[in-house]
Specification:
It contains eleven helices and eight strands. It is an alpha+beta fold. It folds into two domains: about 90 residues, no CATH class; about 190 residues, 3-Layer(aba) Sandwich (YojJ-like (1). Strands 2-4-3-1-5-6-7-8 form an eight-stranded mixed beta sheet, sandwiched between helices. A hairpin with a 2-residue loop joins strand 3 and strand 4. Helix 6 runs parallel beside helix 7 and helix 6 runs antiparallel to helix 9. It is elongated and about 70 Å long.
């Protein structure tokens, strides 16, 4: 019995480690653009491997074994955004800011959104976290000034030279303005969804940033995080959400706690837009079971808080 255990304990540990690694990799890419790419990549490789083994195709088998290293490099290139976000979360260290400073930064964003929403001035604000946003955005003008509601209002004021595009906030400073964020390519988004909100979703699909968008048609406030757009929130709800994400507890989390949180934070595939409902936005994002609706941004006469169902995404 002891001899049998000595033989099988190493393979059992290897299988367990591989199973856990594969499981959490799939959980991490689940619901992102990389999941469909990963599925197609694995299907092609498995199909070629099975055909080669079944029909004894010598040349194809030689090609697969020879170019296996190139396949690994190709996987690194294809899944570069997902790998970068995963490594950033693994090595995510707390910012050198106190809780009081973080809450002050949140208050600046909330006050700006309130003022711009009241006068229906469109805005797009990206809050940088562990992943640098300059690698994911195009163009942009370097600002490097202290973030204040007055400065943000000045940037987004109509007819201003840099009011088009988004603003990047890093800590308590405005890093860049007039940035072009990548648009989301998800097929389940409503056709009525504007470019500003598609850009908010697109940037959060590739980075860990939080993007706040204000509609110039309705004056409604929305936020996007991890590819999910929550529309029609109040200033209090925005403040609560930003606090839950940006104000980190000072205690160090254990690896198992991090994995458990990562598992529950992953978003299941489905519509990327939710509107304000009776359920808290955080629970709607984590469970994926809330009723998802799309609000038509073009209906400027409707109150910003009203939920207008436009059908279900397939």
């Amino acid at each position: 019995m002891i001899e049998i255990l000595n033989v099988i304990w190493k393979p059992a540990i290897e299988i367990l480690i591989l199973a856990i690694g594969i499981y959490y990799i799939l959980r991490f890419v689940w619901g992102t653009r990389g999941f469909s790419i990963l599925t197609g990549f694995l299907v092609v490789l498995l199909t070629l491997a099975l055909l080669t083994s079944f029909f004894q195709l010598t040349v194809l088998s030689w090609l697969l074994s020879t170019f296996s290293a190139f396949f690994a490099v190709a996987a690194l290139v294809i899944f570069q955004p997902e790998l970068r976000r995963l490594l950033a979360q693994l090595g995510n260290l707390p910012l050198f800011q106190t809780t009081h400073e973080q809450r002050e930064n949140i208050e600046v964003i909330v006050q700006t959104c309130e003022r711009l929403a009241d006068v229906r001035i469109g805005a797009l604000v990206a809050i940088e976290q562990s992943i640098q946003l300059q690698e994911s955005v195009e163009s942009g003008i370097e600002i490097d000034c202290v973030a204040t509601p007055e400065m943000l209002e000045t940037i987004f004021f109509p007819n201003n030279a840099i009011h088009d595009g988004g603003v990047i906030i890093k800590g308590d400073r405005i890093s860049h303005a007039a940035c072009i964020f990548p648009l989301s390519r998800r097929g389940d988004l409503a056709k009525t969804l504007g470019t500003r909100h598609r850009a908010a979703i697109g940037l959060t699909e590739e980075t860990d940033a939080i993007v706040v968008a204000i509609s110039e048609e309705t004056g409604s406030i929305s936020y996007a995080y991890k590819g999910i757009l929550v529309r029609g929130v109040t200033a209090e709800e925005l403040r609560a959400f930003l606090t839950s994400i940006l104000v980190k507890p000072e205690k160090t989390r254990r690896p198992l706690e991090w994995l458990r949180q990562l598992r529950h934070e992953r978003v299941k595939p489905g519509p990327a837009v939710v509107t304000k409902s009776g359920h808290p936005p955080l629970s709607a994002r984590s469970s994926g079971e809330s009723h998802l609706r799309n609000a038509d941004e073009s209906e400027a006469m409707d109150p910003p808080k009203e939920i207008v169902a436009k059908g279900h995404a397939e």
